[in-house]
User: What shape does this take?
Amino acid sequence: MKALLILAVLVSGAMAESVRVYIGTGKDGIYTAMLDRETGKLSEPVMAAEVSGAGFLAVLPGRKLLFATARPEKKSRQAGGSVTAWKIRDHGKLDRINQQPSEGSGPCHVSVDATGNTLLVANYGSGSVAALKIDEDGSLVKSASAHQHEGSSVNERRQSGPHAHSFYPGPNNKFAYAPDLGMDKVMIYALDPEQAGLAEAGFAKVPPGSGPRHMKFGKDGKQAYVLNELLLTISVFDLDAATGMFKEKQLVDTIEDGIDRDGLSCSEIRVHPSGKFIYAAIRDLKDAGRNSVAVFKVLDGGKLERIQRIDAEIKIPRNINLDPRGEWLLVAGQRSNEVSVFKVDPGTGKLSFSGHKVSVPGPMCIEFL
Assistant: This one.
């Protein structure tokens, strides 16, 4: 009987297993909640840190560090934006470590290289990128390597100048990649992670007017998937690991033919942990019931086949993310002030709405610990 009781407790504990979620907002700060891995239910989000402008986050789990975009402190005279380092406490709350300039205006994206030594930041407003060294105590060192993009493209309203929209380390951590919406290019940099150094290495082009926003690499690192915000497409590239350069492979639509595209734009792309599926969020700026998530199957050779498009169950899906096991997908509804939860079919990758939502003011980014 005692053994049975112990087994029951262990099973109960496994069923109740949960994972911590951080939600960056365009409102009053960074929130945290727990995702029940059995049911997909999110606990009520609570404030982890009060900060202005934390629209995008990056988590370094092994060192319990979180980095976020931020607006400059009121006492600072610097023009432009900032990035902030936070220590993750055991109960999920965040302790501020320090803040540094993002070396540009309108910081919109941060990521951490594979060594955990370098933070990469993209500045949308100024169209620039920078690398900051992460010190041993988790603090950020003022950037000694920043680069200003130059150029424009065919969309006069959105592409009159450069707009770096994200910045990522490559699969081998020797290069870093910055999709620039204003230039219709992915700028490529040689990366020195030990010194947080960047050197221009080249670029890849997407079709005129595409507006590259975010990107991800396939699980095996052989392909890059660039989400084009303005034309609602994904550019698939083969990656030359030695040179860091891209070779165009495929251009695929995120929505089916016959759908009115006016007022639609893409926001985020994610790769399933298995590498077999890819997810892209589509925003409906006209609030005509077209907010959705598109699901793609990764075919042999890395090409994509769209297999589903499902209602996002919120308004303006600014960000999406998969839990580390790939069992649940969370959608940040920036305009409806909600986060919705979808179940991922492990065999097909297709989504089904779990029925679960939580309220969060202006959610813009979702990261898991």
User: Anything to note?
Assistant: Helices lie at 2-15. Residues 1-16 have pLDDT under 50 and may be disordered. The radius of gyration is 20 Å.
